[in-house]
Amino acid sequence: MEVGEKLLIVVAYDISITTENGTKRLSKVAKICLKYGQRVQNSVYECNIDTLNYKKLRNELIDTIDCSYDSVRFYNLGKNYENKIIHFGSKTINNVDSPLIL
Amino acid sequence: MEVGEKLLIVVAYDISITTENGTKRLSKVAKICLKYGQRVQNSVYECNIDTLNYKKLRNELIDTIDCSYDSVRFYNLGKNYENKIIHFGSKTINNVDSPLIL
């Protein structure tokens, strides 16, 4: 990997909004992810970023979630990712701040 | 890729349960994913399967979702995936069939 070379990082999270400050954490986590990438599903983002920003993204999210209740997963698809992603269905996404019945 | 060699496929879905039969689709999609892999977040599964089963999984899900409202994304992490996945936080997952306030 050359310095500054970009990777495709998929971020998926489950934030427990039934716990104290859960809705606040959900909103903050979504805003952090939007700084680094695009939202592709309600709680899934795709971030085309270099290793430095990947580290920053991880640190900001770890500082925000409550590890006892929330979960964040990162999937690194590397540089050549186009043929590693398949999507079927709608691309419409609900508003990030409204609690979601799923 | 040798025949039968296994890949790590991440499946992430958003099923719109506010539409007709949405809850039924949600439950069916979850059951299909459980046939092929393990649930790691409310609507994210990791499936360690060969290309033949990857195709079957895609076809079963496409036959189940309503493409106007639902979304399914597949991420192929390939054979050597261990260092491509990072997880922070809780591993507890809610019951797949009960509507989820997220």
From TrEMBL, chains A, B:
The keyword DNA damage does not apply. The keyword DNA-binding does not apply. Its cofactor is Mg(2+). Mg(2+) binds at residue 14. One of its GO terms (molecular function) is hydrolase activity. Its EC number is 3.1.-.-. Homodimer, forms a heterotetramer with a Cas1 homodimer. Belongs to the CRISPR-associated endoribonuclease Cas2 protein family. This is CRISPR-associated endoribonuclease Cas2. The gene is cas2.
